[in-house]
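Q&A FORM
Asked by: J.P.
Topic: structure of 5'-3' exonuclease domain-containing protein

PROVIDED:
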Amino acid sequence: MKPHRVCVFFDTPVITQRKKEDPTYKAKRERMGDALRRQFPLTGSVLKSLAVPVVQVPGVEADDMIASYTKASLESGFNVIVVSNDSDFFQLVQSNASPTVSLYKFRTRWLMGQDQVLQLIGGTSPRLHPDLRVLRGDQWGKTPGLPGGISKELAVELLETAGGLLPLLESLDNVQDEALRNRLHASTDMLKRSYRASKLDDSLALPIPLQDFAMGRVNQAGLALLLTDPTLVKTHALEV
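REPLIED BY: S.T.
REPLY: Here is the structure written out as tokens.
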């Protein structure tokens, strides 16, 4: 793997629009441990020493910036590899057309393309992953799911027939099961709110031009030293 461009993305402490709209957003997520929290300033210093570009926009989630840069990269003809363990990025994956987007889950060292994502989410398109999760619910507190529950098979059928969650909610008269139709109708506002929390925003302005991510700008010698000898990381920065 020889990337042409590289960038690291971070959240900020500033409250995001999702949290403003729904104070329970990510309510079930465990608080970051102090040991991990103390590593962030050091990480920033190391990245600065290596001249690795960092994108961090107050009040904007890193996930949305990644989605926006992914879209811009595809439009520029670049393949993209998102390095993250976060399943939110399933919705970006596309490997059946060029250019491609893959997800590298570093804990398991698994490079996931579209086929691998489909195996995990039940056969529907990766772009419909947030739609499916909104109907089914998740364990992280982003969405409670449709009250009363819904099977994965039925949720996939509804979403693929309608073309997504929002089209489904706009055409509930087409849902044959009256009880299900009534539950969807009664939960429309909640489901739309959950969808806004789950769907990544790929339309944001880019604070750093794509060309500034070029690998030629990165201190590759320092990066190589760090990868071969992590003890080079001192209290505040990488000494190279």
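FOLLOW-UP: The chain has eleven helices and five strands.
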